[in-house]
Amino acid sequence: MLDILQSVVPTILFFSAPLIFTALGGVFSERSGVINIGLEGLMVIGAFIAIVFNLTFADMFGTWTPWVSIVVGMIGGAIFSLIHAVAAVSFRADQTVSGVAINMLALGVGVYLTKIFYDKGQTDMVTQPFLSKTIPVLSDIPIIGPIFFKGIYVTSYIALIVAFIAWFVLYKTSFGLRLRAVGEHPMAADTNGINVYKMRYIAVIISGALGGLGGSVFALTIVSNFSHATIVGQGFMSLAAVIFGKWHPLGAMGAALFFGFAQSLSIVSSGIPILEDIPQIYLLIAPYVLTILALAGFIGRAEAPRANGIPYIKGSR
Description:
Radius of gyration: 20 Å
CATH topology: ABC transporter involved in vitamin B12 uptake, BtuC
Order of helices and strands: HHHHHHHHHHHH
Structural class: mainly alpha
CATH architecture: Orthogonal Bundle
Helix content: over 70%
Shape: globular
C-alpha cells in the first residue's frame, strides 16, 4: 500500500499543479463578475511563451531558465488577458464569445509563430525543463516522507501554497472584499466608492497571469515542447474545477486535485491491481468523462457570483 501511495501521490500533484494555477485564475476573474472561458487560451499562450523563452535563453540562465521562463509566461498571459478585459469590461461584449475568441486566437498565434520560428509544427524539446526533486531531511520522515517529499516537483507545492494565498487574499483582505463585492452587487460597490471597472480589469489580469503560469508549468514539466496539441482540454478542466469548487480557491484546488488524479490514472494504473486490467483507452478518456460527470452533478447546486457575466454600466440599476 505504501508503495502504491508513493507512486500515486507525486503523480497526482504533478498533473494537478497546472490545473490549480489556472483554476485559481478563473476564480479571481469570475469572483469579480467576468466569466473567463478563455482559460484554455491563456494556458496555450503561457506554454508557448515559456517554451520559446526557455529554448532561446537556456545558455544564458542555465538551471534558472525554467524559473525565469514561467515568470515570462505569467507576464505574457497577463498581457494577453487584456484583450478579454477590454472586450468584456470596457466594450461590454458577450463574455462567453470573448473567451472563445481568446482560445482560438491564442492557438492560432502559437501555432503560426512556431511555424515561423522553427519551420515546423512544433518546437524543439527544451534542455532546461523542471525536474523532480527529493527534499533532504523531509524525505526521511517515516511513512509520509517517501510519499510527499521524494521525487516531487517543486511547482506542485508552489501551486498548493498559491491556493492558500489566493484564499487569504479573497477572504481576509480589503482587496478581496472589494473584488467579491463587484462580482455580487457592482452597483452597491460603485455607490461605496469602489471602481468596478478597475477591479474587474485587475481580476482578469490576475486570471491571465495565473493561466499563463499554469500553461508554463504544464509545458515545462509534462511535455517539454510546444505544438498545437500541447494544451488539449486542461484549460476547460480548470474552468470545470472553478465551478466544481464553487468559485472558492480551496474548493477549486480540491477539484483540480481530483481532475489531476483522473489524469494520472493512465500513468499509475500498472501499479494498482484494480486498474491494471482496464484498457488504456478508458483511462485516457477518464479525465474528460469525470469532468462532465462532475459538472452534471454539481453545476445545478453551485451558485455563481450574482453579477457573473453581466456587464456593468455605471448609473444603471
